[in-house]
């Protein structure tokens, strides 16, 4: 196995947007996976608020990181369940989770698109997100990444399937995260 990246070091503050641009095979997706805690570094450390990722409880850390991977994977279930990552709802917090789902979809510019589907947020998706187009899937996955207002957003090729409306929604989502003091990493092949 080859080392994708070595000796990378940088500090990013709240409210900053970082673009990582480079050709295929340069290690952009590996960096994205490490930043999103979807891959572990072999040496060194990734930190959030000074604490190493390795020192965090994984469930607690996951609440602070929103990740839109290059390869979109939606699950069997409703659009609402996909956005909320199947958050456990009971009678006390079901309404609150529902509000957070809609808030994430609005921030991702996916709310109106979802409402146009036959059953809206209750539209059932099949294996791999079967039932929506790649562009719709990307917007739903962006809403999932924004669910819970994470402080770190990692977006790997976030516009690969988006039309003009989707691109505007993406820019708005990035600006919204920045405005609330979140940090955004955008991984792309070109500026």
What's the Cα radius of gyration?
A: 17 Å
Gap between N and C termini: 30 Å
Classify the helix fraction into a percent range: 25-40%
User: What shape does the CA trace take?
Assistant: globular
Which strand-content bin applies to the residues?
5-15%
With helices defined by DSSP (H or I, 4 residues minimum), what is the helix count?
Answer: 7
List keywords for this structure.
191 residues; alpha/beta; four-stranded parallel sheet; two-stranded antiparallel sheet; 7 helices; 15% strand
Short description:
This protein is α/β, with parallel strands linked by helices and 191 residues long.
Question: What would you note in describing this structure?
Answer:
This protein is an alpha/beta fold and 191 residues long. 35% of the residues lie in helices and 15% in strands. The strands form 3 sheets. It has a 4-stranded parallel beta sheet, sandwiched between helices. Strand 7, helix 7 and strand 8 form a beta-alpha-beta unit. Helix 4 packs across helix 6. It is globular. The chain starts with 16 loop residues before the first strand and ends with a strand. The relative contact order is 0.20.
Write the layout of secondary structure elements.
Layout: E1 17-21, H1 28-35, E2 47-48, E3 51-52, H2 58-62, E4 65-68, E5 77-78, H3 79-83, H4 94-107, H5 111-115, E6 124-125, H6 134-146, E7 152-156, H7 164-179, E8 183-188
Parallel strand pairs: 1-8, 4-7, 7-8
Antiparallel strand pairs: 2-3, 5-6
């Amino acid at each position: 196995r080859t080392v994708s990246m070595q000796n990378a070091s940088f500090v990013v503050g709240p409210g900053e947007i970082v673009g990582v641009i480079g050709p295929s095979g340069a290690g952009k997706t590996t960096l994205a996976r490490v930043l999103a805690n979807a891959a572990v570094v072999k040496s060194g450390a990734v930190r959030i608020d000074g604490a190493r990722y390795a020192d965090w409880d994984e469930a607690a850390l996951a609440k602070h990181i929103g990740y839109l991977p290059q390869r979109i994977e939606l699950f069997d279930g409703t659009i609402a369940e996909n956005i909320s990552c199947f958050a456990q709802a009971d009678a006390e917090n079901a309404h609150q989770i529902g509000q957070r789902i809609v808030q994430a979809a609005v921030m991702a510019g996916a709310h109106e698109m979802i409402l146009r589907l036959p059953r809206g947020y209750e539209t059932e998706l099949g294996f791999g997100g079967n039932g929506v187009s790649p562009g719709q899937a990307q917007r739903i996955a962006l809403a999932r990444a924004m669910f819970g207002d994470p402080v770190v957003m990692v977006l790997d090729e976030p516009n690969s399937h988006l039309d003009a409306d989707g691109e505007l929604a993406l820019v708005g989502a990035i600006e919204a995260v920045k405005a609330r003091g979140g940090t955004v990493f955008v991984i792309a092949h070109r500026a």
